[in-house]
Specification:
The strands form 2 sheets. Strands 4-5-3-6-7 form a 5-stranded parallel sheet. The protein has a two-stranded antiparallel ribbon with strand order 1-2. The protein has helices at residues 49-60, 64-77, 82-94, 98-111, 116-128, 132-145, 150-162, 166-178, 185-196, 201-214, 218-230, 234-247, 252-264, 268-274, 279-284, 290-301, 305-320, 329-342, 345-350, 374-381, 395-407, 428-442, 464-470, 483-491, 497-500, 505-525, 535-540, 542-553, 602-611; strands at 11-12, 15-16, 362-367, 387-388, 452-455, 476-480, 530-534. Mean pLDDT is 88; it is low at 1-16, 32-41 and 574-580. Helix 1 (49-60) packs antiparallel against helix 2 and helix 24 crosses helix 26. Strand 1 (11-12) and strand 2 (15-16) form a beta hairpin. With 618 residues, the chain is mainly alpha-helical. Among the domains are: 1-112, no CATH class; 329-611, Rossmann fold, CATH 3.40.50.
Length: 618
Amino acid sequence: MSDVLDAPRPRTDGGEAKLCDCGSGLPMARCCGLDLARTPRTPPEGVFAERVGRMSRAYNDGEGKLAEHLALEILNEAPGQRDALGALYNVCKDEGRVVAAGTLARRLAGLYPNDPISQMTAAQFFINQGQWALARPHARMVVRLAPEAASAHIIMGQVFNGLNRTKAAEHHFRWARTLVDELTPEIEGGLGVALRDQGLFDEARAIFARLAEAGPNLEALLAWAQLEEADRQFDIAADLLDRAALLAPDGPRIALGRAKLDRRAKRFEQALEALQGLDERLAAVGVAGTGLLERGQLLDALGRHDEAFEAFTAYKRGVAAQPGQAYDAVEAEALVGRLKDFFTEGRSRLLPRAGVRTDVSQPIFVVGFPRSGTTLVEQTLSAHPNIAGGDELSIIHQIIGQMQPFLGSPGVYPVALSELWLGDSAGLIDTLRDYYLNEALRLGAARPDRAWFTDKMPLNETHLGLISLLFPRSPVIHLVRHPLDVVLSVFSNGLSHGFNCASSLETAARHYALIADLIQHYLAVMPIHYRAVRYEDMVTDQQAQVGGLLEFIGEPFDPRTLDFHENRRPARTASYAQVTEKLYDRSLYRYRNYRRHLEPVIPILEPAIRRLGYDIED
């Protein structure tokens, strides 16, 4: 049979139709260029029963090209026919035509929003690609449509784990447990990961041990090894990787795990050797790019900075090429513009502030651009007996997402806050405050035995105006670090905060400058219980800085806060390894090693650098 992709296509405007460049085999007008709202009504499914049957048999018999040909024939007559779209999706997925498969998965879900199979297909596709944000709306719809199906909760749990919303993930895996007669490795493994990433090591460890004892289970061993590495039990982690190697002697994730352990033990050359030739093998198991990132960090530790930068650049190039991973500059700038327009000095005087509740612990907002030192400060503060570590809480973002319908406003945030001036909305600022505190209690961040808990969600400083309305007396601790160091560190890590600003060096710098300017605006027009702390000063004058922070919060000094590296509370961020060591100064002014590579972003950052009192050194 000739290749169906070479066959003539339906004509539009009197000429041959232009095929969509995603590789689906469909004309542009019926694929990525399709307006779903204007999709022609398709004939009843029974009209195509005979052809659908032939198409399904062809696919099941391994005749992918024939199945594709039959699917395209049907779609030429009925662009939205579900079975044909499904078959074409399967063929594209099987053949590794990822962009085409993703386009078809989205199209199926868009045309059939109330079909759980179509939504499940899209969710599973994006999960397999590691594109958690794209998987989320489809997974949520699956749960809405089929709440009694364990598979729906498993899918939702996997997405929440991928998004680091581990408490929510735990909820769905525990729910899935109640819907099956016998627990499965998929449910138990997902629950174990959710518990591990919340720092509930003992319960997670017990789950992984049961899975490993029940039979060969590579995923359980790898997840267990990650737990032991995070818990600083390096010998146990190495033994678990050895056990995993018996199941997959050439497993790329095992090699990556060994490299990470070697890096923690400062065996940098040995770790680098373990990464040789690993990139393609990692891509084959769905973790493309992680080897490049690890290699860059090892080369940086070895002082081979040009090679490290090359590795980071290659890693970021791969990230940026994935759908939905590019920096959304338009939305970022639009949001900052709306915030500046709404939060003015005049409005600040009129906006109501929530009262302070005394029956529950209160938040300390540790804000700052990713990689500015917020994890160091949270680990320091949570070593104090009266302060709990709350981690990265997404509650402010949840409030923002629900604000417009809750307040009954015709405008989105922050304009929705203008409803608070109206008589029938008086007091609702306290309701929004209570939502935050209730969520903090539910998530275990707010504890009855502590007066305070930390919230260190990166880039919460974008919403300092809202935070100051909800918690006018709560401390806001802003971590400041040399902007070139911050942007370099963002570039050399895998992060997705800030509209995916970390996808390139330039976009990281642009977003840093955007938010730095917004912070200055807030401080000029609003009263905020605010203290800026330099990361460099925390490193070089720890006791004075920690004492000053505790005085600002209103708590007495406790010497345990100086030994933050002894804090057994696990740090669940990219900085988790650094904060298990004593303070060191090798990360100060790291940008000097990459000075020539950073040249393009210096003009973007220079106003912030000068305003914060830093210099630019060669």
